[in-house]
């Protein structure tokens, strides 16, 4: 049971602007780390790169793992923001996907991509 959001046009515009800014930042991070991943991939493929025994710094495997995690986080954030923007467009933004009740503006201020009201989010834990 989805109800139409009860937010004012000004509130929706504010959240849309914030989500677009977050999307731009996440896209920039994803692009940056995508480029860095290419550099790490190239360094890892070097036949002479035996860094697994180098006591001076992180190994290529460590570097790869850390950067893969950051890239995955940025891509996940992009997906969540895109879904939130789609909810703004279809009028369901600010409506709990579980119970259909309104998600408070305070919760959306804290987590603008939230799909659950605070009560349903607690039940999910």
Classify the beta-strand content into a percent band.
Answer: under 5%
Overall geometric form: elongated
Instruction: Please describe the biggest sheet, giving its number of strands, its sense, and whether it closes into a barrel.
Output: none
Number of strands: 0
Number of helices: 4
The topology string of helices and strands comes to HHHH
Protein structure class: mainly alpha
Uncertain runs are: none
Mean pLDDT, rounded to whole units? 84
Helical content (DSSP H or I, runs of 4+): 55-70%
Radius of gyration: 20 Å
What is the distance, rounded to the nearest whole angstrom, between the alpha carbons of the first and last residues?
22 Å
Give an account of the 3D structure:
- The protein is built from four helices and no strands.
- Helix 1 packs antiparallel against helix 2.
- The chain is elongated.
- The mean pLDDT is about 85.
Short description:
The protein is mostly helical and 125 residues long. The chain has helices at residues 9-45, 60-90, 105-110, 118-124. Helix 1 packs antiparallel against helix 2.
């Amino acid at each position: 049971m989805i109800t139409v959001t009860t937010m004012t046009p000004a509130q929706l515009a504010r959240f849309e602007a914030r989500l677009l800014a977050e999307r731009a930042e996440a896209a920039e991070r994803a692009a940056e780390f995508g480029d860095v991943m290419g550099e790490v991939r190239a360094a890892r493929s070097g036949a002479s790169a035996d860094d697994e025994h180098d006591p001076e710094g992180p190994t290529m495997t460590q570097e790869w793992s850390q950067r893969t995690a950051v890239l995955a986080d940025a891509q996940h954030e992009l997906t969540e923001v895109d879904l939130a923007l789609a909810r703004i467009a279809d009028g369901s933004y600010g409506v709990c996907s579980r119970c259909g009740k309104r998600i408070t503006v305070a919760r959306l201020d804290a987590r603008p991509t939230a799909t659950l009201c605070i009560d349903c989010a607690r039940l999910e834990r």
